[in-house]
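Journal club side-thread
Mid-discussion, someone asked how the predicted structure for our own chain would compare to the paper's figures. Pasting it here so we can look after the session.
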Amino acid sequence: MRPTDGRKPEWRPRGPALESRVNRPARPIDPKRIEVIDDATVAVLSAMTPAQRVERGLRMSAFARSVPQAGIRRAKQEWNALMVAHEIKRRFAGAE
């Protein structure tokens, strides 16, 4: 309901899906699942400028999306580019 005294209404999250995410307890960090990079990788990344590291990250992200994209195109040859892009977004959003 809107307040009648001219104030803006207070925003509150709504919907069962949002409520379940908001009220979900945080998972504890499992030290066995933390991956530590080796010294050679540290040396390579340290030698890069920040711009080079960002560029490398963007290329890795593009590659990570291209692999399942190729699989989807092969499995669903009748899908157009928009349908493939939607499926990639769905998969990367964790909807599986």
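Post-session note: The two ends are 36 Å apart (CA to CA).
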